[in-house]
Write a structure and sequence with these properties.
alpha+beta, 5-stranded mixed β-sheet, 4-stranded mixed β-sheet, 4 helices, 35% strand
């Protein structure tokens, strides 16, 4: 089945440990999406004004955002969580003011817990991945103006944004290069970013565009960061329970 992918992403950390009253959207709908047919859009996390959207997403898509994960390899659970047939969902929510990415995704985690009964536990899993780390020189990214409305997007061999966190950057690169890429820079906040590279150059295959720099070179020259191949434990989540049909809105 063919589908169109709208890659407009947010990424965040989980809820604060021991939070008595977790953050919530001001109002939210979470419902099953109609069965897909032909080409259909997928919105993986879009903030537009005071609204947050996810469209035609699997539960695994939602969990990756809510728990700051970059790959399906970091999630274990029932097979239906990855199904693009009868188990796609639409989310539309009202957000207060201009909150940071992590607060929006904490709200998403609360929504999944309350409307879909999601219960998880964490486990470390050893796997191969690319670590995004600081380079030897200065970082070549300009701090973002956080008063601006977000405009972050990615496509084949390109990544642009006016308010991109390092977690967002690694999520986009992981999806586009089909690699597990993890932020280990220690950098916080949001940045302006313009990144161009040869698609496919982050893996073992030959790049589709040999005239553009490899992903490794582009990250170093354009961002002042570095990608390193590693093998070690990464945080994963195991879904102990989740309801296929969301509770009524």
């Amino acid at each position: 089945m063919k589908y169109a992918l709208a890659v407009v992403l947010l990424l965040a950390t989980g809820l604060p440990a021991g939070a008595a009253d977790p953050p919530r959207f001001e109002a939210a709908t979470l419902k099953q999406a109609p069965p897909p047919s032909g080409n259909y859009p997928i919105v993986l996390g879009l903030v537009k004004g005071s609204r947050f959207y996810m469209t035609n997403v699997t539960l695994s898509d939602c969990l990756k955002f809510a728990y700051g994960l970059v790959s399906d390899a970091q999630i274990s659970g029932p097979d239906w969580m990855w199904s693009k047939g009868d188990h796609l969902y639409d989310i539309e929510a009202a957000i207060p003011g201009n909150p940071p990415h992590d607060l929006i995704m904490q709200m998403l985690k609360t929504l999944l817990t309350e409307r879909m009964g999601v219960v998880i536990h964490h486990e470390d899993k050893t796997m191969k991945y690319l670590a995004l780390v600081r380079g030897k020189g200065e970082v070549k990214m300009t701090p973002a103006d956080t008063s601006q409305e977000r405009n972050n997007s990615g496509g084949t061999g390109r990544l642009t944004g006016n308010r991109a966190s390092l977690a967002l950057i690694t999520m986009l690169l992981s999806r586009m290069e089909h690699q597990v890429i993890v932020d280990q820079t220690g950098l916080t906040g949001e940045y302006q970013i313009q990144l161009r590279w040869a698609p496919g150059s982050g893996g073992a295959g030959a790049p589709a565009d040999s005239t553009a720099p490899s992903l490794f070179t582009a990250v170093q020259e354009q961002l002042g960061l570095k990608l390193e191949s590693r093998n070690g434990p990464l945080d994963t989540i195991v879904v102990d329970h989740a309801d296929k049909i969301p509770a009524e809105n």
